[in-house]
Design goal:
five-stranded mixed β-sheet; Restriction Endonuclease; three-stranded antiparallel β-sheet; Restriction endonuclease; alpha/beta; elongated; 12 strands
Length: 331
């Protein structure tokens, strides 16, 4: 992901800082401090004694040549550099949320189509302005959660227990997949089953090579199991089997290219659990080619991804605020 040299030089100046601490929003860093800075970013760069700004600019250019998730996301190392640079504990001539430093950084990043912002965890993240995709150095759904993230996770779990299937699709799945970089997300809904053909959602994902993959999603609110008698609210895997075959065998029309295309992969998404027996039964029923097209996401996968991508909670999951007109409010 090449950045303009002017942008690299501007960010390098922010990392190096200025001798006059009264006129800067960034800490001054000597050569040794620059080495420590990049060590804090989990890199092995050591200052070689050359001009600081020139050396840092070269390091940033090298970092941006690392592999990236997609065209809208800088390499993880660059995200860590921005987070370390904008650590709120390093505020200089600025309030703790560092509005002055943030404005300078964004004036440079805007040339590349990115914007920096602080999230609820007080960490600085990058957003791709055109697609609203958030780049993060820690989008790992299996990492430990902070106390605030754990609370958010519990609120979302409670919401999934009471939300309808349509609400889960509209308020949780659609925003989540958009955040993860999928686009042209189209939902069939549950009002008109005639045009659903086994899928609730179809969407596409553009690879870094600009090849496009198409995905269909069959979403269920309850648990997916393989028992002979399924409890109310749950789904039997035999029903899912029929829907998967319909999803993979039916073409969808992509208006962006004016052609009908087949779904490359089928997502089976459940706001409950997907039992191991159900996964095995479905895998055995499908031939090898269709089995490789099948992807599963259960309750934990949805919630963990929702938290680590820093998605806002649906309205129904937010705690209610007391009304000033309520007689029980102590005023």
């Amino acid at each position: 992901m090449p950045f303009k040299q002017r942008t690299l030089d501007s960010i390098a100046e922010m990392i190096c800082g200025n001798y006059d601490m009264n006129t800067t929003f960034f800490l001054y860093r000597t050569g040794g401090n620059l080495t420590r800075f990049f060590r804090d970013c989990d890199t092995d760069y050591v200052h070689d004694g050359s001009t600081r700004n020139h050396w840092v600019s070269g390091v940033l250019k090298e970092i941006l040549e690392e592999p990236q998730q997609n065209a809208q996301t800088p390499p993880e190392t660059f995200c860590r550099v921005i987070q370390t640079l904008m650590d709120q504990a390093d505020a200089c001539n600025d309030p703790p949320d560092r509005p002055g430093a943030l404005a300078l950084l964004n004036s440079a990043l805007a040339r590349e189509g990115f914007e920096a912002f602080y999230a609820e965890d007080r960490q600085c993240y990058l957003r791709h302005i055109a697609t609203n995709t958030i780049a993060s150095a820690a989008v790992n759904p299996h990492r430990p959660f902070s106390a605030s993230e754990q609370k958010k996770r519990e609120q979302l779990l409670s919401y999934l227990d009471v939300a309808s299937e349509d609400e889960i699709i509209q308020e949780v799945l659609l925003p989540l997949f958009r955040q993860l970089g999928f686009h042209r997300i189209t939902t069939a809904g549950h009002k008109d089953k005639a045009l659903e053909y086994g899928k609730d959602i179809w969407m596409k994902f553009t690879l870094p090579t600009l090849h496009v993959l198409y995905f269909g999603i069959q979403a269920k609110k309850g648990k997916i199991d393989s028992s002979g008698t399924t409890k109310a609210g749950n789904a039997n895997v035999a029903e899912i089997h029929n829907q998967v075959l319909m999803m993979l065998g039916h073409e969808i029309f992509d208006p962006e290219i004016g052609k009908r295309v087949l779904v490359d992969h089928a997502f089976i998404v459940s706001a409950g659990d997907i039992t191991k027996a159900a996964r095995n039964w479905l895998g055995n029923k499908l031939d090898a080619s269709k089995r490789s097209q099948l992807l599963f996401m259960d309750r934990d996968d949805i919630v963990n991804l929702f938290v680590v991508t820093n998605m806002p909670l649906p309205n129904g999951a937010l705690p209610e605020t007391p009304s000033f007109e309520d007689d029980s409010f102590p005023f």
